[in-house]
Amino acid sequence: MGKLFFSTNYDADTGGHFGEFGGRYAPELLMPALKELEQAYLSAKQDPNFEQELMDLYANYSGRPTPLYHAVNLSQQLGGAQIFIKNEGINHSGAHKINHCLGQALLAKRMGKRRLIAETGAGQHGLATATVAAKFGFACTVFMGEVDIARQRPNVFWMEQLGAEVRSVSFGSRTLKDAVNAALKDWFSSVEDTHYVLGSCLGPHPFPSMNRDFQAIIGLEVQEQIQQYGFAKPDYLVACVGGGSNAMGLFNTFLDDDAVQIIGVEAGGRDVGMLGEHAARFQGGRPGVVEGYKSFFLQNGDGQIAATHSVCAGLDYAGIGPQLAFLKQVGRVRMTYALDTEAIAAFKLLAQTEGILPALESAHAVAEAIKLAPTLGKDKTIVVNLSGRGDKDIFIVTEALGDAKWLEFLRSKVGQAEQISTKGRK
Ligand SMILES: Cc1ncc(COP(=O)(O)O)c(C=O)c1O
Fold it and tell me: Range of 175's domain?
């Protein structure tokens, strides 16, 4: 196994700049906390005990290595390249988010913090933060937009069971960007004893580089696992891109090898031609500085952050991690998108050919593999990062598929709930 902390030709400079992107554009009040975090991260990188402790948690707490699975049925049905699924959904708490949460929890412990805060969209990062908070004994508050709470209620329930407080964010578009703002606002007044567990490869330096390093285990495992199938390396890597944590986790190991082609998949929503109907930053986004970093953002005519839409909360965000913006700009990564309908169709196809239920975020990557595989020879390989499992999406998928039996089930549950609350009032 290679080391987690390695450098590539596409790394940030010491100020956290990836070309023109990245940096640390934070208010003066937060600078000491960001510098303290940077110091803790830099010293942890040099400390073999830190890496060993993290590797032990990956293996014995989260269940790594996650499998690299040859999706033979899907590959045969598509009639082209061999598709391999890197199944991050097998991780404890159901997605790749636990990788950077474990790393950040260890750093928070080193910094002597007592409380963790986090923002969440799909709830997976919030769930992973609540999980590590429970394990390490931190108090925990998770900020989540009202709209996301409504579409990801199961994760809210689980976070609360883990002892976290989920704070509903009711301003702005009431989605992920507003949850980030609420978390940053909390951090202003709690910075002494609180660590902000930022949930993707974005935000001010050092978060983009640090979370990428904590996710790099994904690509390192793939590098070894693909060889066990008799291939020297993958030909293509495909990952969905919200902020970029699962994507950078897979891509980082292979960035310096130009023979490996790399594709990021954004949320095309209902229509990539209409601002507000998608979350594909490279379909009409522009460079800007928002929430502490410079990158590509979907913006309205006044330069304000635009509303976004995706069928899945985890990709429904107007900004993208700065390293990915840079990789796209220099041509190392090709960015494309999948529509809501394509993601739902990919979800169904993967479920029914391989018995794997992907998270809807991950289904965007599967949708791209479905388009790509038939254009390639059978000797080519595509590794798809399946960032999470689909259990959390049951309400969205049943709605999208118009499942009548599920509606009937919900009605009976509502009936039962009403009976319970009437009894309670008597
Ligand atoms: C399962 C899953 N995949 C992907 C994402 C997108 O995040 P990122 O781009 O940081 O991997 C999320 C975000 O919540 C998620 O829950």
Answer: 17-62+95-211
Distance from C-alpha of 15 to C-alpha of 33, rounded to nearest angstrom: 15
- Say yes or no to pLDDT of 368 above 90: yes
- Which pLDDT band holds residue 426 (cuts at 50, 70, 90)? low
Measure the CA–CA gap between 210 and 415, rounded to whole angstroms.
Answer: 48
**Average pLDDT for residues 293-316, to the nearest whole number?**
94
Report yes or no on 224 lying in a domain.
Answer: yes
Same structural domain, 142 and 262 = no
The answer to the question of residue 401 being in a domain is no
Residues 69, 124, 2, 262, CA torsion sign: positive
Q: Are residues 366 and 272 in the same domain?
A: yes
Ligand 1 atom closest to Cα of residue 313: 14
Residue pair 203/292 in contact by the 8 Å Cβ criterion? yes
Average pLDDT, the chain: 96
pTM here is 0.96
Ligand 1 and 93: CB distance under 6 A: no
Question: Annotated active-site positions, please?
Answer: 97, 119, 387
Q: Do 73 and 120 share a domain, yes or no?
A: no
Q: What is the CA(200)–ligand 1 centre distance, in A?
A: 8
Q: Is 280 found in the same domain as 168?
A: no
Q: How many CA atoms lie within 13 A of 411 on its CB side?
A: 6
Which residues is 168 bridged to in the sheet?
144
Q: Whose CA is nearest to atom 10 of ligand 1?
A: 245
As a whole number of angstroms, the distance between CA 47 and CA 62 comes to 22
Angle between helices 322-329 and 207-215 (to 10 degrees): 90
Beta bridge partners of 167: 143
Distance from the alpha carbon of residue 242 to the mean position of ligand 1, in angstroms:
6
Whether residues 38 and 78 fall in one domain:
no
Looking at the 3D structure of the chain, how many domains does it have? 2
Ligand 1 in reach of 175 Cβ (< 6 A) = no
- 8 Å CB contact between 115 and 139: yes
Q: Which atom of ligand 1 is nearest to the CA of 202?
A: 10
Amino acid at 350: L
**What secondary structure does DSSP assign to 179-209, as a single string?**
HHHHHHHHHHHHTTTEEE---SS-SSTTHHH
DSSP 15: T
